[in-house]
Structure formats: C-alpha cells, structure tokens
C-alpha cells in the first residue's frame, strides 16, 4: 500500500469515526425533538453541548493531524449545529404555548 493510499484510507476512517459520533449526537437531538412535550431540560442541554464540544475537538485534532480536510469537519459540525438550533427553536415555541 502506497503512502497516498494509506493517507486516503486514514482520511476515510477519520471521516467515518467522526460521522458515527455526529450520528450519536443527532440521535440525542432526535430524541429531544420527539419529546417536546417535556419542558427544557438543562441537564439534557448540557449533555448536548458537551457532546458538540467534544466532537469539535475531535474534528480539530483530525484536521491538525492531516486526517481530515477542514471543510469536511466544518460541514459535519454545521449540519449538527443547524439541527441543534432547530431543536432550540422548537423548544422555545413549545414553551410559549
């Protein structure tokens, strides 16, 4: 295996692992979206924020190690941030009702 093939393989492995972590966070967001009847849960929000922070650090490490292109990492994070913002908007609307 050439060094170029190895780097490509490591790059794909890094993307897959980061996407798995992003998918777990997305599941947490989905669970909260499905139970909007509950009031905002500060503990749940703290878990989501901590998970998002952890993922951002993982992505930063992968970029710095040359395993991931920065734009790919930003895309993973921005997609999750968009879903998280949607959750917070839905929670704010349900609180007004």
Descriptive report:
The protein has 97 residues and is mainly alpha-helical. 85% of the residues lie in helices and 0% in strands. α1 packs antiparallel against α2, α1 (3-34) packs parallel to α3 (70-96) and α2 packs antiparallel against α3. The termini are far apart. The model has no long low-confidence stretch (mean pLDDT 86).
List the helices and strands and how they pair.
Elements: H1 3-34, H2 42-64, H3 70-96
Helix content estimate: over 70%
Low-pLDDT stretches: none
Based on CA inertia axes, which overall geometry fits?
A: elongated
- List the total number of helices: 3
The biggest beta sheet reads: none
The average pLDDT is 86
Briefly note the structural class of the backbone. Answer: mainly alpha
Number of strands: 0
Radius of gyration: 16 Å
End-to-end gap: 60 Å
Q: Could you give the order of the helices and strands?
A: HHH
The percentage of residues in β strands lies in: under 5%
């Amino acid at each position: 295996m050439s060094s170029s093939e190895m780097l490509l393989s490591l790059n794909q492995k890094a993307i897959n692992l980061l996407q798995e972590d992003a998918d777990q966070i997305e599941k947490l967001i989905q669970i909260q979206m499905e139970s909007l009847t509950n009031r905002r849960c500060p503990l749940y929000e703290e878990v989501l924020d901590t998970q998002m922070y952890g993922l951002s650090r993982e992505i930063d490490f992968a970029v710095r190690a040359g395993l991931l292109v920065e734009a790919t990492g930003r895309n993973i994070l921005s997609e999750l941030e968009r879903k998280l913002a949607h959750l917070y908007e839905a929670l704010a609307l349900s609180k007004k009702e």
